[in-house]
Design goal:
six-stranded mixed β-sheet, binds ligand AN7, Rossmann fold, 2 domains, 15 helices, four-stranded parallel β-sheet
Length: 351
């Protein structure tokens, strides 16, 4: 059996690397595609969950980051920078540590989930909090990286998209065909752009015979693409997608048009409902932003113009442990500690 060595080695002929490129990898990718009996029953489709939370740093960002850091190192960069709602910074910090380069992140103060912040700091990134949101942070790092010798690793860096397109390759490999539809949460819109690029490349290489519909969902309080205008003060409990002016807006629109796709928005309440369905019925723990894909599928499955039995893949972009505060807030409180007697414990159990 071949040992999985990450997405660059696995899909080398589709990636912008040469034999001398110094590949920086944590063996990302190869994440499970989990069939959901429950969601299939509800929707009438064959629904699969692409569980990206099982990447090395717990999100899909690792697919793009292996490529971005590899190319940064190849070009001689000694430091990298990004703006982040959390996952990009966690991934950048880990891959930079592995590469032995410095990393810096600008984050919106107060709106990065605890697990992500822990990851960025433990891997040695310098975290710079700003009094402003992600959109402002992105504006700043684009400016800084254009003026100073520091490589930008946000998804405006085309190498990020190149790496992330591997998600589409894997889904096709796992299904043995293209799905009929891919359902994905949309924040900065890099991932929907990347998946669409991946599907098109596989179609051109005759690996699949048709292309899926691309279906995106944004959070109601942060839905610039759905609303057709920038959102100045984006808000949602799904902090990963708390973005008002997506960098890849144009490409997302293209993907939606070319694939005859669909985009809409879901409320925080609907996101949390889907989050609870996934954890309690499927046994799959993703973060709230990821649950937006399933929330959208649950809300709009009749509007997607898909036949019964269609193969639908929902991308669960990040692990649930990223945001322990939301998980705890969604759970019933745990009682005070008790004396460990048989009677006391039996009393607690509903036989
Ligand atoms: C779990 O980390 O933008 O539409 O700075 O962390 O490609 O932006 C994260 C985005 C979905 C949206 N799900 O993806 C960041 C950041 C999770 C995410 C998205 C993000 P894009």
């Amino acid at each position: 059996m071949k040992h999985w060595q990450g997405i660059i080695n696995e899909y080398r002929q589709y990636m912008p690397v040469s034999d001398s490129t110094p590949v920086i990898s944590l063996c990302e990718g190869n994440t499970p595609l989990i069939y959901s009996c429950n969601l299939s029953e509800i929707t009438g489709f064959k629904v699969y969950l692409k569980y990206e939370g099982l990447n090395p740093t717990g999100s899909f960002k690792d697919r793009g980051m292996t490529m971005a850091i590899t190319k940064a190192v190849e070009s001689g960069a000694k430091s990298v920078i990004c703006a982040s709602t959390g996952n990009t910074s966690a991934s950048m910090a880990a891959y930079s540590a592995r590469a032995g380069i410095k990393s810096y992140v600008l984050i919106p103060d107060g709106y990065v989930a605890l697990g992500k912040l822990a990851q960025a700091t433990i891997h040695g990134a310098q975290v710079i909090k700003i009094k402003g949101n992600f959109d402002k942070a992105l504006e700043m790092v684009i400016d800084i990286s254009s003026k100073y010798p520091i490589a930008l690793v946000n998804s405006v860096n085309p190498f990020r998209i190149e790496g992330q397109k591997s998600g589409a390759f894997e889904v096709c490999g796992q299904l043995g065909q293209s799905p009929d539809a891919l359902v994905i949460p949309v924040g900065n819109a890099g991932n929907i752009t990347a998946y669409w690029k991946g599907f098109k490349e596989f179609k051109n290489a005759d690996k699949i015979s048709y292309l899926p519909k691309m279906i995106g969902f944004q959070a109601e309080g942060s839905a610039p693409i759905v609303r057709g205008h920038k959102v100045d003060n984006p808000d949602t409990i799904a902090t990963a997608i708390r973005i008002g002016n997506p960098a890849s807006w144009k490409f997302a629109t293209q993907a939606l048009q070319e694939s005859n796709g669909y985009i809409n928005m879901v409320s925080d309440e609907e996101i949390l409902k889907a989050y609870n369905v996934l954890t309690k019925k499927d046994g799959v723990f993703c973060e709230p932003a990821s649950a937006a894909s399933v929330a959208g599928l649950l809300k709009y499955h009749d509007k997607l113009n898909l036949k019964k039995g269609s193969v639908v893949v929902c991308v669960l972009t990040g692990h649930g442990l990223k945001d322990p505060n939301i998980a705890i807030s969604q759970s019933s409180e745990i009682d005070e500690a008790i004396e460990p007697t048989l009677d006391n414990i039996v009393e607690k159990i509903n036989f």
